[in-house]
Amino acid sequence: MGRFVGATVKALLLLAATQGAWGQTSPVEYCQQIRTDDTLRTVPPSLVSAVARLFQLEAMPLAQVERSSYFRCADGQVFVCTVGANLACGKADTRRDLPGVRAWCAEHAGSQNVPAYVTGHATIYLRRCDGPRPVASRSALSIDPRGFISQNWKRVESGCGAVAVGWACLFPPLSSGGALVAQP
After folding, report:
1. What is the pTM of this model?
2. For 11, 56, 78, 100, which has the most beta carbons within 10 A of its beta carbon?
């Protein structure tokens, strides 16, 4: 019992330390400090406008963009993803053999397409049925070095400490309350 309590306290202290470091700095500064962390964190208000621009979600209410978007750190850079109908932010599913696909093909022999509700949205393969046998054909998506689907993640450029989203650094750093984006 004592070991369990001790381990739990250590885990909570580590979590608090990590959350404290993140909560007291901008995502850009945090990622520069931590370098790489695959933890998906909800985007703070300072990144919401950048996410809306990167994913062309300007028509979506910003509160919805904030609720459905995440950031993570890779090599000191901030990467953002927003969950959508076919966009998964978690790590890619690289398994070639999925039990659900086997069952689908048994019932839908010869199907030229296995729907995403069967494969899951994180799979990287196009799938079909060769008779009752499932076939994982070519990879439809690429995977980044950390195991995430590359097409679903966009880097938030942070040269000069400001969020620039691929354009010039014309605005203040996120730690000053946010930045806007403008094409030069």
Report:
1. 0.71
2. 78
